[in-house]
Every structure is written in C-alpha cells, then in structure tokens.
Design a protein that fits this description.
heterodimer; A: mainly beta; Immunoglobulin-like; 3 domains; 5-stranded mixed β-sheet; 7% helix; B: 160 residues; alpha+beta; SH3 type barrels; 4-stranded antiparallel β-sheet; 3 helices; 41% helix; rod-shaped
Chain lengths: 312, 160
Amino acid sequence: MKKIILNSLLIIMILLTSCKDIIVMDISGEKVVLLSPYDHLESYSSTQTFWWEYVEDAEKYQLQVVSPDFVQTETLVLDTLITKDQFLYNLVPGKYQWRVRALNSVYSTDFTIFSLQIDSTQDLTSETIILRTPLQNDTTNKQILTFSWDKLYNADTFNVVLLFEGSPSIDTLTAENSISLSLIDGQGAYVWKVNASNEISRTEYSERQFYLDTSAPLKRTLISPVDQSVIQDSITQCVWNIPSVDGSSEYDSLYVYSDSTITSIVFSAKVIVGQVEVELNPGKYFWGVRGVDKAGNRGVFSDVWGFELSTK
Amino acid sequence: MKVLKLKKLLLPVSIIIWSFIIYKVYVVVFDKTNEVVMKSDTHAEQKQVVKEDTFRLMVNYPDPFLNNFVTREINRNSISTSHSKIGSRNKKEIVWPRIDFLGVFQNKNSGKSLANLNIDGKCAILAKGNEMEGIKLISVYPDSVQLGFDHQIRTFKLKN
C-alpha cells in the first residue's frame, strides 16, 4: 500500500513539473512594460535603443516602428521579432510611434505604444554606428569578407579600419555602408571598426572581432570497431581519435554505410566527441569520419573500416 | 577473219567515245567563258531573292477545328532577317559591370598592394588574385589595375 502511494505521488510530481513544458501558458492578459525611449521623447540622437521588460512565459517580442503614428501610418519603418528585451536602431529625423507585444507559440499580449520624435542635427557625437555583419566573434574561411553597418542620415563618410593581431591591416574611407575587404594577413584574430564623420563631428568607433581560419581539420584515426571485426551485438560503439589543432571549434561527421563503395548511408551523426553508440540490424557495415570546423573547412575523410554485426 | 571484222567495227566506236570524254573534260577544266556566266547568274539570283521573293503556302485545306481556309504569305526577306538574328545571338557580348579604380593601398604587415575598387556601386579593397562579383584582380600598379571578367582582361586607370 505504501509503495502504491509513493508511486502515485511520484507520478503526480512528474506531471506537475512537466506540465509547464506541455501546456503553453496564457500570456494574453499580461502587459509589456516599455522602458526606453520614454513616451513622447524628443531627441537629437538618431540612435535609439528600444527597451522593454521581459514578460514571463513569452518566447519572443514583436517590435514595430511607424511614422508618424499607428492611426495614420505613412511608413512602416521596422517590424521585427526579437527574443531579447532590447533592439538598437538608427532613425532619420521625424515623428514616430513604436509598439511591442509579447508572444509565445499560442498566445500574445496586447501592444504597448509609445511616441518618439527625432530632431535633426549635424552633431554626430551622440550617435552610434550599428554594425551588422560579420557578427561578433564570427569565424570564417573566406579570403574576402563583406563588412556592413547601418547608415546615419547626417554622416558624410565612414572610416573603416581592419586590424590584424592588433596592427592596422586596412584603413579606408567610404561613403557607403558596406565594403568588401581582402584578408591578406592570414589566419588569426581580426578586429574591424567603423566610425562616421561629417564636417563638424564624428562618432565613436564601433568594433567587433572575428577569426579567419583556413586550415582544414586533420584526418581522424579510427580506433574501434577495428577493420574486419565481427561484433555479436546490435549496438556497436564507434570510437576514433580527434587530433588537437589550433583554430576554430570543430565537429565530426560519422557515417556508417551498408556497402564498401560508401554510397548507401545507413547512419550518420554530428558529434563533438570521438565516440558514438550506433544501433544497427545484423549485417556488414563500413564506417568513416570527417572533421568540419566552425569556419566551414572540411577535413580529409578518414580511412574506411568494415565490421560485421551478427546475432548471438 | 571474223575477229578482224569486229576490230574494224569497234575502233571507230571507241574513238568516238574517247573523243566525247576528252571534250567533256576540256569543257569543264579549260572553258572559262561558261564559268563567268555561271557566277554572274548565281549573283543575279541572290540579289533577286533578297529584293522581292515572296511565296505563298498553299494551306488550302479546311481547318480541322474551324472548318475554314487559311492562306499565309511569307516573305523570304523576313526569314533571312531572323536567321541573321540567330547568328548575332550566338556571338556572346560581354557586359562588364561599372568599375572605378580609386587607389592603391600598401599593407604594412605583408607589404602587399591592394586595389581600392568600386564595382557596380559596391566598395571593395582587393589583393592580387582575389575575385569579387566575377571580377578578378590580375595586377596592381600605382596608377592602374588589370582586371579579368568572363575571359576578358581590361586595364582601368586611376579615377581622378
């Protein structure tokens, strides 16, 4: 009897704890509290951080910015879904309204609306260059990379600086909001930074870091099951050695084939460790591994070993 | 006796046949008057075709669906025009993007030269051998660059 009660309690506890995962919480009665820019703000700064409070059980937020207002809208400036609680954006002078609502997979809250006015100025000191691509700490294997950022209505030129291991690689001016640069200094850590200027002022530099990695992962060495082995089990553990190498993070692709010409894949997996359990029907199989890194470099395919699974 | 008679008969026959063959060969090889006439005839015929040759398709059978007759006039000139269009289409015209060469950079770390280019409104600073938008930077000089595009090579001078 005691055992039955204990088991029942256990089941109820499991149900209660997992309930939140199964049932989507109704957030339609909640309200998104907008924090910044405050309602009816008049600002000379075209760079605005739209910021609001998190709503419990919300998965994302819809931010909309229109000009001049949501009643007589002339321009939809921005309509985006964000998982965080803030969004940085550059506006041109004018009258705006912005609104945010919280969403999950089923429910959504009502929009909360604020008004905003941006006044014109030539002073760039309070503006921020919003960098777009490449992302912070991105990794690439491309020899030419395109850098992009948002335009500022009152900027004449943008100064783009590319640094390799701390020393300047390229320093140039452009009137556009993107530029493609050759990464001629080889593999390693790069910093790119951009500022904007006009006749009377300039912004601070906005900067990001990225890595150039052109080295392919090294060839993997298979360990077990050894070539031509016979395993009397339906589950086999594939184990191989991953040589350590400097550069971006790597993952391994394991392939198990039903033929020696390695054309018919019966199992594949992406893993970051050199070990995978594979459940297969009795038969003859062939397996191999290839390393791929975050920059997109593909390593040489390992040797291909064969094994046979047989029932006891 | 019979053999001698036959020889007497065959000799003139063979002479006639051979004479005819030799005459025909001579006419073809040496007679230039005929050749000129043939050429001028061909030329005249071609001119005529270009000027006014029209012909009529005799589709004088009832339309299987509408049960009426249709006659179409086709002008040979229009046919020859369409042929010439096909011919010109086969010749691939390479259209280069708009390119401005804006200057040369010297990379302090490696000493390599980089070209500052604007390709169809897109800014790019490229090293020798790099390729962007199908444009390959072949050589960099202080006042010009050599670029390759679709198997063509062109030199671009520094934009003042």
